[in-house]
Structures are given as structure tokens and as C-alpha cells.
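re the bet — no i am not wrong, look at it urself. input seq straight from the record:
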Amino acid sequence: MALKSSLRSILYQSEKTIQRLRFSSQPADLPVLLGISFPKSGTHLLDQILLGFSNVAPFAKRVHSFYAEYEGESGRKRAPEQALAWLDSLRPADVASAHLFARPEAVARVCSPKFAPYFIFRDPRDVVVSHVFYVTDMEARHVHHDYYQSLPDFDARLKVSILGRPDSDAEFPDIAGRFAPYLDWINHPEVLTIHFEDLIHARAATLTQIMDHLLSRVPLRAPRQLILDSLETSINPKKSPTFRSGKTGEWKKHFTEEHKKIFKDVAGDLLIQLGYEKDGEW
């Protein structure tokens, strides 16, 4: 494992060297492109888009690393110091991806000239539906997989994804509690917030925002249309499960009146904060 990791690191650094030579006329001191995502909200899609910058500037051609606040198999919560150490390990022109909490220390690092940060999220109602499919059918090693499999049907699993598992040894709050540690990312202008849905229904405008967010930090020497085309062509739906169906509002097919009630009870205000509803009448 150590040898494999070492070889991967050597390959990554070699590719970055080639990129610097390929784009020698471009600025050398580039920020880290950091894609922050709430789980099940388009992580892979954002990664693909950010990697599109490597076609026009000396950014890395692959994601340097991925950080998550919880270990997938054990569900163990990582210490805040681990997130800070990971952020400090990133170097100029890296492209990195994370489910990263907006703790004050992390915010201070990310909202600095070292980073060009993006935060993508999705309608939390679609998140809980996606979570059921992922934990039950797609990730057998997930800490909650066996429990979800033991439940009688989809409705019961969806209730758990909304309400969490307060009795579980592995921390799993309700959907509003799961989003709360990420919420402060939307309050910082240094971080571009992206609604997943806008990449479906207003993709051209959203890609332009993603481009301009970087250009406001570093003036890339490439035509705007070439940059936009690079971001667009980098999208590969087959490698982005959340994006594959190209649909939004799928929760409407799965929510019963009971699901609506319990969701409004625990996360109705969250939908309003994130701009998905104006009030509780949905």
C-alpha cells in the first residue's frame, strides 16, 4: 500500500511538472482549486469541472486527494486537526475535493489567497433519497449498510435518512444536523456556492460563475470561451452518479405525507435558508 501511494505521488508530481512546462506562459503561483461538497450533492461533478481548468492552465490533471469528516466504513468522526493538516498539505495548482466542515480554523485557511474554493450542495430532500439508494444498494461497506438492509422497505429507510440514528454508536444526526456543520460556507464571499440544480437547469451561467470565481483571483491567459468549453467538455456523467439521470426534484416520487411532515419538523427552516422553499407550504 505504501509503495502504491508513493508511486501515485510521483506520478502526480510528474504530471504537475509537465503541466507547468506546457503552460509556461501562464501564471505560476496558482491557488489550490478546492471543491467542498455536502455528501450526495454532486461531488464528482464538481471535481470534473474543476479539473477542466487543467486544459487551459497548469493545474493538476487529477484530484490530489479527497478528505471526509467521517470514515466511510467505521463512521468514526475525524479530529478537526486532521482537516487542518490536510488543508496545509495542499500546494499551488493542486485540485482537491472534500466533505469539509466550516469550522472557524478551516474557514480561515480556505478563505485565503492560497485557495479558490467552491461549495456545492443540493436540495436536502433529494439528498436523503439519494442517501437511501447509496447506503442500501451501492456501498456494502458503509457503516449503516447492514442496518438499512434490515429495514422492511424504502419508506422506513427514508425516515432514517431524514431523522438520523440517535441510538447508533456511529454519529448520524438528522438531515438538518448533518448539514449544520457545512452551513457557514454560504456566508463567505471567498467561497462560490453552487446549487447542484443550477448545473442541470442553468449550466452555461453556472459554469461562467465557476470560471469568473477563479479569474477574479488569477488572470489566466486564455480566451474566456476556451475556458468555458474546457469546463463543459470535462463533464462525464458516467463517472458522476448523482448527475447521471440529469433530474432534480426526484424526492417528489418518494416522499409520502408522513415523510413531508417529519422533514418539515426537522429541516423545514433549512430549505428556506438554502433557497429551496419560501415557506413551509410544500
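see?? The first helix runs from residue 2 to 22. told u. also Residues 91 and 139 are 31 Å apart (CA to CA). so pay up
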